[in-house]
Amino acid sequence: MTALLALGAAVFYGSADFFGGLTARRANTIATVFVSQFAGLVLLLVVLPFLPAATISSRDWLWGIVAGLSGGIGVALLYRALAIGTMAVVAPITAVCAAMIPVLFAFGMGERLRPLTILGIALAFVAIVLVSQPRASSEAEGGPPGASRFFPPGVLLALLAGVIVGLFFLSLARTTSGAGMWPLIAARVTSIALFGLIAIMSGRSLRMNASATTTAVVGGALDMLANALYMLAARVGPLSIVVTLASLYPAGTVILARLVLGERLSFVQTLGIVCALAAVVVIVGTSA
Question: What is the pTM of this model?
Answer without folding.
Answer: 0.82
